[in-house]
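Hello,

Following up on my earlier ticket. Below are the two sequence lines again, exactly as submitted.
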Amino acid sequence: MNISSRLLQLVMVVLMVGGASFLMMQSLPGDASWRIAAGRYGYDALDAAAAASVRAEMGMEASGGLSFLYWLGDILRLELGTSLITGEPVWNEIRHQLGNSLSLAGAALGLSFLIGPPLGLLAGLRAGGLLDRSLLAICSLLRAIPQFLLALVLILLIAVEMGLLPAAGHGEAKHFILPALTLALGLAAVSARLARDAMAAVTQTAFHDFARWKGLSNAQTFWRHGLRHVALPLVTYLGLQFVTLVEGVVVIESIFGWPGIGHALVHAIFSRDVPMVQGTALVLGIGFVVINLLVDLLGRQLDPRGVK
Amino acid sequence: MTLSLGLTSVVHATEGVALSSQESASRRLEIVAPFDIKGADPLLSGILFQRMQVVETLVDVDAKGELRPGLATDWTVTDDGLEWRFTMRADVHFHDGSLLTAEVARQALEIARGKPGLLKSVPVEEILAQDDASTGKATLVIHLSEPFAALPAYLADYRQQILAPSAYDDSGTALAVIGTGPYRMMSMSPPLSLEVAAFVDYWGEQPDIRRARYQAVSRAEGRALMTESGDADFTYSLDPASRQRLRDSPRVSLASAPTPRTLLLKVNANHAAFNSSDVRRALSLAIDRTAIAQVVLRYPEGASQLFPPMIEGWHNAALPALHQDVIKARELLEADGWQVGEDGIRHKGDQRLAVTLITFSDRPELPLVATVLERQFHAIGIATRLDITNFSAIPAGHHDGSLELALFARNLALVPDPIGTLLSDYAGTVEAPGGDWGAMGWHDVDFSAELARMAREGHAASDNGRDPRREASRVLQDALPVIPIAWYYQNLAISNRLESAQVDPWERSFGLSDLRWAP
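Thanks for your patience. The regenerated structure is below:
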């Protein structure tokens, strides 16, 4: 593992994500001062005076390129600037919202690992059996349903019809369950198939046959020889799941009224809050690099072959 | 359950054993509405803090839109209209324990004057505080450079809320919500939630509901689902489809009341097609308001004029109602020289009658209504392209001259007296006619002068019965600088756990302090 190359990757991510989000926000049509005033004051109170006051406050006549350089300077000082809508430091807002999103994503990941891999392993042990075929059908269905639809189905069934859980909201443990379950079912649909394929492949190997031949039970063979082989593709998939989670969180947070980074990003884009968009995209980009690094490290632990 | 006067009550139970005080104190009311919390400053989310009754203004408004005492118990003006004196309510404490004085109110108003808002347009010369420590009497004196009869109404606007000095930083930005209302802020987690508790030192009556939590849910379907699942006790702003669905729910009752808000089509009278009032009238005649109101909005009726009946004085029952007459619309366009081409779209010379209609989706009914309008305009030979975008494109398009048509819902009582909205939307000068959400390219010198006079001197009917407000409505109806389509209703869902819920038609309060837990 070359740490310096990872650091270089991190710097490249900062520059590319920051530059791309800046350019994209600059290229959006319409006058930014109107958009910002709209985001701040709402439409009953939006008028030319409000937009003019935003323009004067932001010094928007200054060149766009210059403000990108200012932003880079802030990054070097480990600052993300101030939200144009709320006036709060961007880092304060992101820290609060990212914490909410990470806790939701963590709950979803945990739940997906409780649901997906165990079912996949069971199906893989009896490849082609009833469980395997049923799981394939369920996983295909779950992957085919858009997450917002799955969310609405779960809300209607569990919250409205059965009255077991809140339909939306935030602040108590029970509010986690439905949004986390919505995300987890989509993730588990894939991890179950991965675990199933890996398990089915392991059962076909010579070392598996040998372990069984020398008298180990199925369970002993799995724990001593199978788990590590099955874990490797699952851990690699973990990194990819992070991308799916971020995409899913944006939609799910809006449906469940969850005050996370997805909700913040959508509102920041609508309101042309450039520092918030840049800061949020940057934090997510760094998150990808860190997750990839952790996945690589874990992969090396699971499969140390070739490590010098 | 709608009363024509604009006040609706929902009573679930009137008999039974009242809750114990301990039980009542521990129960928390769950409120759901679409408004995000952007920050503590009145400019950002002040209207929400007012609706949650955390903050108050000097002047308040009753259910009929009449001004009533708030933090000021009464007010007087000198004969020349230049000096207003507001007597401050005695023994009012802020939530931080500090005392309300005239000086504190002066500071809050000075801060408000320095920010964008309607108060900037009031000819205030100076604000003075007269606090008499010996008698405890406090008076706020506002000197104007010219008379402005609508001043008390302007002071009822949420941006003029009076916060404690400790709420502000050195630059005048409010960092905390420290008001005088019956509820104090317990916690605030922007952008989606806050919690309040009853303020034990409130100057008025103590509310029955002791704790309440506000949750912002921007999607109308999300609010309806929370209502249906029992997670929300008080749901504000239901969309028409959800209202239909919730009608059968055993958990809630629905309440509805007209509000001072009208669905409008803003027309650029500078546009080559729309500079003729006949063409604007043709547009108006193409619109089937009844169908839009009943089928799309699920309201009982469309708008027959700009002001709904709830805005007494300004609503002019004598005006001929706006209605649909497609044949007459086609005749007006023909008379103005617009001939139908081979593609069914009208043209005059080489100019084709094709326009863009801007609207936005923050109010979910707007794109639906825009789609209906597109078809109805097509029926008289006008090609309409829909542009569903950010709402700021409408005032921005007004200023750069690019806007052709725009659809939105306008609050006609930004301040409780509609003269405030009329001044900002329909008065002006020849060089800068109209306002961002009102007339575009239309200017009537006499009308502007009359609006300015009404703001200055008031708009009481004269001895001969002539009411200048009704006359103003007639001018707008004749010229049609904007085309009214439907009057709005505010729709609420209220849990069966509650009783005595009321709809505030002026959209200033959720009415928490009037609610009671059902026995």
